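Severity: low
Component: inverse-folding endpoint
Summary: output formatting inconsistent between runs
Steps to reproduce: submit the following structure tokens with default settings.
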């Protein structure tokens, strides 16, 4: 008697991105690679979701509207959700900005520079959060 295949169910990746086209691109890349995704447009919304949600990891733009940026989300996670702090990936189109450089140096979190190729991005996600099965 054959037993049915059991698919492992991953908690979603939280995607924080305010540009709709980039959000759609990143969400599609993650989902095609087997990662479920929950999207939000601001750091404020992300913190609300992080307070109560179970997430595999976080992909955050460095600059988001609403007064809470990627660095502040990282600090909040380090304080309130230390289980996720090693599973944060930043994305940015502003890699040369002094604040961005300082945040990346301070946090040690990986960063993928926009624009990026899907496989490059998914390789960083897999290394940081594990491969989706």
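Observed output (run 2 of 3):
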């Amino acid at each position: 008697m054959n037993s049915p295949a059991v698919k492992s169910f991953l908690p979603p990746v939280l995607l924080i991105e305010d540009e709709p086209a980039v959000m759609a691109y990143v969400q599609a890349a993650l989902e095609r690679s087997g990662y479920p995704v929950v999207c939000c447009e601001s750091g404020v919304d992300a913190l609300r979701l992080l307070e109560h949600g179970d997430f595999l990891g976080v992909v955050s733009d460095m600059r988001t509207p609403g007064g809470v940026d990627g660095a502040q989300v990282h600090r909040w996670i380090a304080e309130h959700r230390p289980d996720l702090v090693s599973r944060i990936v930043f994305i940015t189109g502003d890699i040369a900005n002094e604040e961005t450089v300082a945040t990346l140096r301070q946090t040690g979190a990986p960063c993928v520079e926009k624009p990026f190729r899907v496989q490059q991005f998914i390789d960083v996600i897999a290394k940081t959060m594990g491969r989706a099965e």
